[in-house]
Specification:
- The complex is a heterodimer.
- By secondary structure, chain A is of the alpha+beta class.
- Chain A is 53% helix and 22% strand.
- In chain A, strands 2-1-5-4-3 form a 5-stranded antiparallel beta sheet, with helices on both faces. A 5-stranded mixed beta sheet of chain A has the order 7-9-10-12-11, with helices on one face.
- Chain B is an alpha/beta fold.
- In chain B, strands 2-1-3-4-5-6 form a 6-stranded mixed beta sheet, sandwiched between helices.
- In chain B, strand 1, helix 1 and strand 2 form a beta-alpha-beta unit.
- Chain B starts with a strand and ends with a helix.
- The interface between A and B is medium-sized, with 27 and 23 residues.
Chain lengths: 375, 141
Amino acid sequence: MHENDQNRQDARSAGDRLVAGHVSEDPFAAAFKATRMPMIVTDPSQADNPIIFCNAAFLKLTGYGDDEVIGRNCRFLQGPETDQDTVAKIRDNIAAGQDVAVDILNYRKDGSTFWNAVFISPVRDETDKIIYFFASQLDFTTVKSREADLASARHQAEAEVAKHTANLRAALDARSLLVHEVDHRVKNNLLTMASIVKMQARVTKDERQKQTLMSVLNRIEALSTVQRKLFTLDDVSKFDMSEFTRELVTDLVDATGRKDIRLSLDLAPLLVPAVKATPLSLIVNELVGDAVRRGLNDGGGDIHVVVKRLNGHFLIRVEDTSEPVEPDSESVELGRMLLEASTLQLGAEIERKRDGSKTIVDVVLLVGDHQENTH
Amino acid sequence: MKVMIVEDEMLLAMELESEVEMAGHVVTGLAMSSAQARQQIGSSKPDFAFVDIHLMDGPTGIDVGRELAASGIPYVFVSGNIKKIPDDFAGALGAIEKPYTMNGMKNALAYVSALIEGDDSGSPPASLVLADDANAGRRPA
């Protein structure tokens, strides 16, 4: 106890000497005492480097009285939550006689904490010997808590985003699964419908009825071919009309089994909105089917199919040269109805030209980029 | 030739059976699951098989295909989603995409049966996606 008192007395005397060195008019001393920034001076020549002077702002910040501060090492401001690495950093820099600036959690007399931006700097005499340490404090608790609020708000927002992203991903997965499932069922149902018609045709004795069933089968199969070609492009909202035409026409001509039908195709890659796939495909199917029924199937001939863009229009042309035969009137009637419905559906125009044994049918559809992008 | 049909939709399988028989072939059996298919591969020794990918016991058609390939039996996949076929095509000659047309199936069958009988002069029909072409298409340019 006695020794402790002595130390305190020594510290106070050192502080008094420091103050006595400055007359009351000294503006630096006055500024030190009056500034709102908490400041202290310690004396490293005494045991445990005690505080020998502190200003009023320091007492106000820490809640201690002058008597409780002078003669003590600064570590009385530390507490259980104070980071020991930061304390070690201060200690090492002081031992090395260097400036140090750190953020440290300190404790007031009443036990409450504050975030302290401490700056400590050695003060040297003419011989470069360290005679004092000067330290300033800055309470930035409000800044720190605002940072914490911001960080916590950011974490919350990130958690929300992560949650929504997970929900969206799950919804997307469910949607993909559903689309695949529906696509699979549509394909199976189309094939089942076709199979039922084929079964009926197989057991039907009447040639005429059989022909009617095959005519129905042909249209169902045109839709099957559409369904097979849907969703095969990267952009699932588009349908490749040329690819469809190539397959459908080749299939129809192969089916005749005639080697004397010469097929030529002029197909430019042409993507159309998927919603237009069915009427467009029925048009191609009817035009080619009609050419086959009017003579190709009976005596062979030439057939030339064009699918391309022409001056912003979309052109389907089927040109055939064959020895004409009288087609089945019911078949012609169904073909005419399907063609009419499909062209009306699309707002397309149809033009038919006959020139001897040659027939040219043009279907022209306005498909500006604007229209193509509507779906 | 002797043909096995591996397909879990009985109505489609029966219709395909009629089609195959009308083309002058013999159907050795209809299998709806991979177990039935395995049993028939062993007992009936088909010359050729149509194999759907999705069977009663799941997407096991690929495994059935590999076993056919291992037994030296040529086959084609018949599926609504040919994108599910592995890159090596599991040893299949090719694939016919559902819903196939009657003519598409006839043409594919005629091409394949000629091929199996040693006649490779025909050109493959549009309805048959050949394994080689599919793989060439899959390779990055």
